[in-house]
Here is the input.
Amino acid sequence: MKNKILVIFSFLLICISLFSQDFDIKSFSDPHKYGWDNPEKLYDARSDLVNRQKLLQIYEMKNQSITANAIKSAFAPGWGHFTAGEFTKGQVLMAMEIIFLGTSYYFYDNAMEKYDKYKKANYILDINQSYEDANDDFFISQIFLSLGTIVWIYTLYDSINATEKFNDDLWQQISQQYYTNRIMITPTGFTLRF
Amino acid sequence: MKKIIFFLIVASLLLSCSLDRTNPLDPNSSGIQSPPKVTGIYVSIITNNWLLVTWNAMPNDVDGYYIYRSMSFNGYYELIQELAADDNIYNDIDVDIMNDNYWYKMSAFKFVDDKKMEGMRSDPHTWGAK
Here is the structure.
């Protein structure tokens, strides 16, 4: 048994050594494949990388979480938009939600009042009339509740888009500020450009 | 397109709800027939202060009657008396026909569990008209 294992292991070692390639150090360290024809270009590329890392740190501090904004919008429609800087849209959505849900509650309350009358009625006409009146108000309440639900779902979906747009614009803004401002304060210090 | 379909589904689900008919006196929920309308109502003058209201009794179909009175045809009809199922006359002595008009409506009721289910009220009647 041990001999068999030894034979198989030796066979595998021979195969590996026959089929493995030599590590080509020259091609690995060739700067030309990155476009670095001279040391200056190499230093520029390195400096650009360092700068981008600084910008990334600023971006990570200021960017917004999509999940957090979606949860905010789920709790209070429009809140996610306010956080993402879309104030007008947030106000409109919040106002719509308040109007729809408020109207739905108003008609629901009326419906329940008439429903109580229906439950207590004993005259056949009152029974039918009260039920129809209650059901009409209940139906209107359901319409506004549906509209409120649709607005709520749309707000959730749109808050995600708004946050993504905010984060995209943030990166553009940070990059632009970095390349136009002479003084830049970063988490690791400050940069002065001449 | 998918969004529109989704929203339509949400809306239709919410709009398909309606209130339950839970009143035990509701014929649409309990299947109970409402009491028949009172027929043969006639109002006659006995004296200036006494009107007699008569009708066709239905002792086998109902458990009693309500009689309502108003000072005008389209006015508010006030419940003035509850009567037994085998009654077919009512003496209204709280009247002054020289100065006022009186219109009467009647309805029948029957007991459903411990509640009274009132049927359709009749058309208004006054003296001299059937």
Observations:
- The first strand of chain B starts at residue 42 and ends at 47.
- The beta strands of chain B are 42-47, 50-54, 64-70, 78-84, 89-92, 103-112, 115-118.
